[in-house]
Design a protein that fits this description.
This protein is mainly alpha-helical and about 400 residues long. The protein is built from 13 helices and four strands.
Length: about 400
């Protein structure tokens, strides 16, 4: 079904996307030495007292994924052979493969690490959307999925080349400006396509919800200033939009599937932009050894899964087939239209894997206010002009 999705609306990733954590791999000592900073009435978020390196976060993500798969397989309502459950497991398969690639890339200190974490974030966004199709409210699965999302979000915004670029600050280079303008043009095209699709999907509440969310994210990119902060935030957000495209592909009715563009081909141009950034931007690999604080609400630890279970569940997820026949795809899309439970993927839904702590509003303009998340201090330690620390309590940003 990806082959169809690969053609919808084009543009891409939330880093989600928009991700709430600011990149800050070098600020541990300063954070420990200074009291919580206050900024326009905002207080610094409390931490769990635990810290993690990039390697530990990859391990935590793999463990959370394994716990999620273990609990899902034990639930008869989440039978992987049931058509409505297959999209969820298909996304899980992608995450498992990308986490393996991230682990190997980190060990070899190659760009595969950054690319795999980005792709895992995209697949996680897809998973959160396709989870709604299952109609499951299995809290154990949901909780482990959120821990997985926390680990990936921290990896993406604390241990990435985007984080390094944001820390460097300064002005956008001519190359970066050109790439940014290219992304903005892609987003404008996506917005135009969404406008047409929303008319056709008027009675499909879940799809309209998704299209509206993608439209909002695309507009955020189009309206973003040409600053380093906004460029980095855009690269994060493309992960999320890409995942939304793949996730909502299973919601498209057969009668107007031809209105979707062939997504894979279109998304290739977004990925080319990201690949160019990763290939050019430098990175101090010693940064992956620096521990970052785990904030309250961003817990990543899973305690009831053994190392042998991690290997077993990972192997199962990677090697099982969750391919769907055309008839199954049509069945799932048709059932979704009349399913009132599949109307959104908001974090306040009791059956949602979405978590505001993962993707609450990256800093697009370098100002004091969050760009759409609602988190107390998403911009803590970020400069009003685009890169240097403005006294948020953390050295090095």
């Amino acid at each position: 079904m990806q082959k169809f999705l690969v053609g919808l609306i084009c543009l891409s990733l939330g880093v989600g996307f928009t991700l709430s954590r600011a990149a800050k791999p070098n600020l541990l000592l300063a954070a420990a030495a200074k009291p919580a900073a206050h900024k326009k009435g905002k207080t610094k978020k409390a931490t769990t007292g635990k810290k993690a390196t990039a390697k530990e976060l990859v391990a935590a993500a793999k463990k959370a994924l394994a716990g999620m798969v273990k609990n899902a397989r034990a639930d008869k309502g989440l039978d992987p052979k049931t058509p409505k459950n297959k999209p969820f497991y298909g996304a899980v398969k992608k995450i498992a493969k990308e986490l393996d690639r991230a682990e190997k890339g980190l060990a070899s200190k190659s760009n595969d690490f950054f690319d795999a974490v980005s792709d895992a974030r995209t697949a996680e966004e897809q998973m959160k959307i396709d989870w709604q199709l299952t109609d499951s409210k299995n809290q154990k699965v949901i909780d482990d999925a959120k821990r997985l999302g926390h680990a990936l979000a921290i990896l993406r915004t604390d241990f990435s080349k985007e984080a390094a670029r944001k820390k460097k600050g300064g002005e956008l280079t001519d190359r970066e400006k050109a790439e940014f303008e290219k992304i903005k043009a892609q987003q404008k095209d996506l917005i135009a396509k969404i406008g047409k699709l929303k008319g056709k999907a008027a009675k499909d509440k879940a799809l309209v919800h998704g299209l509206t969310d993608m439209e909002k994210n695309a507009k955020k990119i189009v309206d973003a200033p040409l600053t380093v902060n906004a460029f980095v935030a855009t690269l994060y957000l493309i992960d999320e939009i890409e995942g939304q495209l793949y996730g909502y592909d299973y919601y498209i009715d057969k009668d107007w599937r031809s209105d979707w563009i062939v997504v894979d081909t279109y998304v290739t141009s977004w990925e080319t932009t990201y690949d160019e950034f990763v290939s050019v931007e430098s990175y101090e690999w010693a940064s992956v050894e620096v521990s970052v604080d785990i904030e309250l609400g961003e817990e990543v630890e899973v305690t009831d899964v053994s190392e042998s279970e991690v290997a077993a569940e990972e192997s199962w997820a990677e090697n099982e087939s969750f391919e769907m026949s055309d008839a199954e795809e049509a069945e799932v899309a048709e059932a979704e239209d009349s399913d009132e439970a599949v109307d959104s993927d908001d974090s306040d839904d009791d059956d949602s894997m979405d978590d505001a702590s993962d993707d609450e509003g990256e800093d697009f303009d370098g100002g004091d206010e969050d760009d759409g998340g609602g988190d107390e201090d998403d911009n803590e330690g970020q400069d009003d002009a685009g890169g240097e620390d403005d006294g948020g309590g953390d050295d090095g940003e």
